[in-house]
Amino acid sequence: MKKIREFLATVLEHKATPYVGASVILFIIFIPILWTLITSFKTLEESFFSPPTYIPKTPTLEAYREVIFNSPVPLYILNSVIYATSTTFCVLVGSVFTAYGLSRYPYKGSGMVLGSFLASRIIPPLSLLLPFYIIYKILGLIDSKLAVVIFTVYLCYPLSVWILKTFFDDYPQDLMDAALIDGCSRLGVLFRVVMPGIAVGIAAVAIISFLWTWQEFLSPYLFLNSDQNKPITVGVYYFVGDELTYWNSISAAAIFASIPGIVFFLIAQKFIIKGLTLGGVKG
């Protein structure tokens, strides 16, 4: 037992161990993605083979042609872009003004207001789908893009306020006072001085809101009925028929659905990491 403990201690202390462990976890995570990619290059017949083929016997772009030219997937992706950009814009505008006001102009109940944002996210969103559905039914918003945008704004807004408030709290008051003395209005201070200084935090909030909305599934699945309003997360069900499931086309659609989010994240990942790091540590 002593030798075993010594061996384990040596392995755990080795500098390569974290990298090996991370590589193993990453490989496990990527297995479904790799399998989806492989399936997208198979013919419909080959996608039903049992046992399955791990490398397509006759690689083909048949599924991609079907998805692009003979399905509403391009419309679904456009809808996802509309939902993601609309939510991101609304969340940014609302959270910037809210966080700035709570940070720089506190009042007697501001702490309770900030706590209410946290409380609203403690409640699981799944449990709120039915109340939202009933409200939308009364207001006539079922099967409308606005219904999805309102719900995704609800999901992203509280976290965005908390992140941005930390940035506003850490911003030097002296710089703001100097701008006021120079004749800048209070809104001018916010737009011309403060926001450029916390651009990393704003970018992090925008990226999180975009990706969070892009991958949302339950709310559009429940609130939307017509194909013309569905996002890509729900739209992949187009290839699930009553008698046959087109696994190769579903895989191709899933690849198309993941590309915008992956590209967006790769371009802006440094803003997410830096923004969350700075936002979680007091200066």
Write the layout of secondary structure elements.
Layout: H1 2-13, H2 17-40, H3 62-69, H4 73-104, H5 110-122, H6 125-139, H7 145-170, H8 173-181, H9 186-197, H10 199-214, H11 218-223, H12 232-235, H13 247-279
Helix pairs in contact: 2-13, 3-13, 4-7, 4-10, 5-7, 7-10, 7-13, 8-9, 10-13
Identify the CATH homologous superfamily of the largest domain: MetI-like
The helix/strand class is mainly alpha
- Our Rg estimate from Cα atoms comes to 24 Å
**Quaternary state, please?**
single chain
Q: Judging from the principal axes of the Cα atoms, what is the shape?
A: globular
CATH domain class of the largest domain: Mainly Alpha
Q: Low-confidence parts, pLDDT < 50 over ≥5 residues?
A: 278-283
| Biggest sheet layout | none
Whole-number average pLDDT? 84
The number of distinct β-strands equals 0
Number of DSSP helical runs: 13
Description:
With 283 residues, the protein is mainly alpha-helical. The chain has two domains: 2-40; 71-279, MetI-like (MetI-like fold, Orthogonal Bundle), CATH 1.10.3720. It is 74% helix and 0% strand. The protein is built from 13 helices and no strands. Helix 10 (199-214) packs antiparallel against helix 13. It starts with a helix and ends with a helix. The relative contact order is 0.14.
